[in-house]
Amino acid sequence: MADREKESGWGFATRAIHAGQEPDPVTGAVMPPIYQTSTYVQSAVGEHKGYEYARTHNKTRAALEACVASLEGVDHGIAFASGTAAIHAILTLLQAGDEIVAGENLYGGTHRLFEQVLSRFGLVFRYVDARDEAAVAAAMSPTTKMLYVETPSNPLMRLTDLSAMGRLAKRAGCLFVVDNTFMTPYLQQPFEHGADLVVHSTTKFLNGHSDMVGGIVLARDAELAGRLRFLQNSVGAVPGPLDCWLALRGLKTLPLRMDRTEATARRLAALLASHPRVAAVHYPGLPDHPQRDLAERQMRGFGGIISLELADGAVARRFLKALEVFQLAESLGGVESLCSHPGEMTHAAVPAAERERMGLPDRLVRLSVGIEDANDLETDLEQALASLG
What we know:
Number of domains: 2
Strand content: 5-15%
Mean pLDDT: 95
Oligomer: single chain
């Protein structure tokens, strides 16, 4: 592995390509090998080369963990089989009776995990508008052990003031966890604002090619990372070596892809915001976004996710059906542009009344902007809107 002190002096793009990796010492191969093995030979009982069993250690996985950790500016990365598995591991640091204050606008799979799985084991969840520092502070109690936020949130692109939340968590003596999937470490660095743990779905922008599923947790504190590694090994929800290799491959172009997707997203958001058939656009890069100043303070770009509202649910479905370049599918963050209906797709597990209360109406559409020609994406949106009559 490259020397950590040496890596710290490298720029982001250099670390995205080289951090945690070195040419294969046997062949000189530039890309790390895929260590497709379940176990490792030991020279004698208890004598091995640092690898005993692949659930516990895999060198391809270790390279991915080291690379993403370097990009987030910390020493520890712990990879999992999915983003949801990574979030599950974080929550199992807690115990029955512990309380979690969470942003109310969360990815539907996270809400499902919290309410339909983990609440049955005695964890207590309180949901609050994470844009409101006072509301978050009021929701916290002596039993609050974790503050959990997504910023920007999925799918309304609401922002949370990370520095303010970091101060609240520190005063309360609780863990501060940030889902940084939408922004990636290229556009946002939550550890600089007091985060204790950062989680990503590596499936999304980090991999960027829609050909694997994975998740990762990053930690600054060695003791906290050790507890997560214990859970990683004990529960066993680890990614396979091929998935890790694919994510490493994707990381090498992360800065290029994020620059391209954001530039196009800003252009498309402006188009949508000026269109008479669009009732509202949720994108922090728009000049009139209510949290534009916060976005400029804590992010170095606005990302590639846009949500928009049309007249009603029926119009939203017609719009999605009319799109040709944007493909109707779950997920986001790939090189291809995707569109979805959060109410019936990514957030279907959230009860309808709760979706409406959180501001997730049936008329809402989410776009994940890829790296296709911006003119083609613009034309696609225009023809789909024109088809609405």
